[in-house]
Amino acid sequence: MHNRGQVAQETVDKVNAIIEQFGYKRNILASNLALNKKFRFAVFLPKSETLEYWKSQVDGIEKAALEFSKFGIVLDYFFYDYNLISFRETVKKVMQFECDGLLFAPIFYEDSVLFLKEYQQKKIPVVMIDSNVSDSNEHAYVGQDAFQSGYLAGRLISFAVKNERHVLIFKITREIESTSVYLQRINGFYSYFKDHDELTNFKFSEVTIKDSGIDQLNVEMFSDVNSVFVPNSRAYIVARFLDENNIKGVRIIGYDLLNENIEYLNKGVIDFLINQRPEQQGYMGINYLYKKLVLQESVEKTQYIPLEIILKENYFPVKRLS
Amino acid sequence: MHNRGQVAQETVDKVNAIIEQFGYKRNILASNLALNKKFRFAVFLPKSETLEYWKSQVDGIEKAALEFSKFGIVLDYFFYDYNLISFRETVKKVMQFECDGLLFAPIFYEDSVLFLKEYQQKKIPVVMIDSNVSDSNEHAYVGQDAFQSGYLAGRLISFAVKNERHVLIFKITREIESTSVYLQRINGFYSYFKDHDELTNFKFSEVTIKDSGIDQLNVEMFSDVNSVFVPNSRAYIVARFLDENNIKGVRIIGYDLLNENIEYLNKGVIDFLINQRPEQQGYMGINYLYKKLVLQESVEKTQYIPLEIILKENYFPVKRLS
DNA sequence: CTGTTAGCGCATTCAT
DNA sequence: ATGAATGCGCTAACAG
After folding, report:
1. pLDDT of residue A112
2. Protein A299 CA to nucleic acid C12 C1', in Å?
3. Does domain A146-275 have CATH number 3.40.50.2300?
4. Which nucleotides in chain C have some atom under 7 angstroms from a protein Cβ?
């Protein structure tokens, strides 16, 4: 009798009373068996072929898909090239695709906001991964607190070196930089030093280059520099340069366990990497939709990924999932 | 069908061929529905009332129990006081209890080995948490690599301080110390410095006290000391002493996010805590049995918990589960 | 040893 | 608007 047509309120109450009394709980498994229904989830992400970080996200998603396939979930992927044109084209495809849930990485801020606004009229659950765009608590989110991760980086810089003074913030951006994540990280980073005015002898400078122009790196940039903070996954570019030019004694802190980053972590050139656990993000994103739609449970809408500090000594190249 | 009585090998092959051909996969949900069976898991742990660490383990276990109750799993707890007498009494109870799976924390080494040896004749899956006792890969394990966690602590000590020399390893043990975990951690710690002979100006000393005799702490113990490594969860005892006696500038590194440890982490007295994620351990332990028995999947037998470095800046008092 | 059937808990359909 | 029947995919008990 779970709502079909119009029922007298009286009856509804009576039934609910009995449900309470006997502590009845619907067997969701039998229910899904009888429904004999597939759950279609759309996965809307940047193309992962060349992007290691997104590859990991997809790995987690596929692991979840495999695990939950027995419960009738099916995934449909919508990949786009990392540019606005391709993103907008794919938006159209996603809009007209019929599904029960959506996993979405809101890379391009403004367009993502528009897309979500339109999409939510469909009344289909959405979970965002990597970065959050929803101002309200409208949609679910799985990812990190970018500001706090920068704050943490500040702390790590502050004690990892001896009497140091000159910190370089090294921004290596794409042609089209899309997310504000790295800006939040930089904000957090500076905030740490603002909050700790006992750390007086720190000097900061910033350098920005495009990743297409890494030949612009030069030795002068690092003269007098003791530490480098790279607020995105491209720490290996700085590390490689310093390594090749035999510049020693510079601390580097960066993000994400890309193979190239790990290489320089193991070499001792990069000191810290903050891991975002992309694989877990993807897994948890699908897991959210599964719990919400298949199991019809209530799930925490915002699930923060811990700020994981990776050193050479606690990096294990194993599958590190929940 | 799936093995009842004797079937001609020829028929078995033929059936298997057809299974292959049509890509048939048994619907484990319908199967369990038809079986209409409860899965009983025994949980064999130290009493968690006063032990915060074990309380967290049980939290994770209960979370899993709640989540999987819809799949027919039922838990039976066997708690013992933290001593050998009580442990042995409880062993007897567990031995004669009928169940489908066992979650077990092998606190007392020798007795645990004996118990497991006897228990495995029952052909019931066992998963160990917290520490591993099985030499072979006989049983499943969820927990940390204790040696490597000490090694990591060595690294953290080595760069967290300026030109420092004197490292104190502070052992605060129980009346009956049971596990070898803290010894492995100390081994790992020393190994780090052995492996890095460029770190020449480090001097080490050790102090051991019983946790019943913390009044034995005195100021002389810390004269000339720059860093303290506490290889178990009792870092707060050292921190409290230093704080009360206004001894500053000593780095402390310890284990586990006990409330009292967190208090001194937030105060800036403790610098690092290595988290073992007890809640996740408990959850994953039950999850192992669930996947193995209910879903009849093959599951990774050894699941290492990452060595999580917690600073004031990346500690969030939220539920941090996979 | 093998084929048939009832029923696990539920939702949908059809009949009333 | 409501009760009864059918079947989701599977297992166990039954009969042949």
Report:
1. 94
2. 28
3. yes
4. 1-2, 7-13
